Each structure stands twice: as structure tokens, then as C-alpha cells.
Amino acid sequence: PAGEKAHIETTTRGVPFDIPALGFMAHMHVRGTAFTYELIHKNGDSEILLDIPRYDFNWQLRYELKEPKILPKGSSVKVTGVFDNSENNKANPDPKKTVKWGDQTVDEMLIGYVEYFVPIEEGDKIATVE
């Protein structure tokens, strides 16, 4: 919303199989100020996977884990973004405008990429180019 200093948006996706996560990349545009990845276990317990309290559009990073983190099948990943659409945000192109999803930097996005791999089981065939 126009003029909103701390607007929160979330999205949650189920984990369809055990995912060995390698890293995360948070993506918002110039109104984004904070970003969190949270793992919600089947029993309702939750744990923070990544907390970016001072998100900056000009400093988008891939956050790589030292060791793969298994996101268990049946759990879910919740992504939360905080947006500052007020005049206090010096990067905000128009604090009087209600902002919607869009590809342009003057629009907004909330995308939480999860980088992972799928282990190859013994006996699986790998396609090769000859």
C-alpha cells in the first residue's frame, strides 16, 4: 500500500520430497527491507533457515550453506518479506503509489529461491552427449 512503512507479505510452499538444500537467494526490489526463510515441520515446529534483517536490492547474494540442509518431505518453506513504501525509504521511486507484482524495478517481487540437488540413486542412468 502507498505510504506503508512495514508491509509484510508471505508465501509458503510444501516440500514434496526430502530436499538437500545447498543455499538460498532472496529477491525483492527497491522497497524490500527484510527477508526470512522459515522451515515449518509437519508437527508445526518451525526453524529459521535464513534471516536477512537489512535486505538491500543492490546487494543481492546467494547464501551458501556449509553443509546441505535436509528439508524433509511433508514440511513447508515459508518466505516472508517486509516492504517499505514510505517516504523514509530513499530508494523508493514513488511512495504515493500502491505497488503490485511486476518485472520492473519500480514494481515489486517476493521470490525465495532454494538451491538444491537431487541425488542419483545407484542404477539410475545419466544422459550423456557423445
Model description:
The structure is a single chain. With 130 residues, the chain is mostly beta strands. The chain is built from no helices and 7 strands. The strands form 2 sheets. A 4-stranded antiparallel beta sheet has the order 1-6-3-4, with no helix packed on it. It has a 3-stranded antiparallel beta sheet with strand order 5-2-7, with no helix packed on it. The chain starts with 6 loop residues before the first strand and ends in a 14-residue tail after the last strand.
Low-confidence stretches: none
Mean pLDDT score: 92
- Figure out the total of helices: 0
- End-to-end distance: 55 Å
The major pleated sheet works out as: 4 strands, antiparallel
What percentage of amino acids are in beta strands? 35-45%
Give the proportion of residues in helices.
under 10%
Shape annotation: elongated
Q: What's the Cα radius of gyration? A: 18 Å
**Number of extended strands:** 7
Strand order of the largest sheet: 1-6-3-4
Structural class: mainly beta
- The arrangement of helices and strands along the chain is EEEEEEE
What are the key terms here?
about 130 residues, mainly beta, four-stranded antiparallel beta sheet, three-stranded antiparallel beta sheet
Secondary-structure blueprint:
Blueprint: E1 7-14, E2 19-27, E3 32-40, E4 46-52, E5 62-71, E6 76-83, E7 111-116
Antiparallel strand pairs: 1-6, 2-5, 2-7, 3-4, 3-6
A few lines on this structure:
The chain has strands at 7-14, 19-27, 32-40, 46-52, 62-71, 76-83, 111-116.
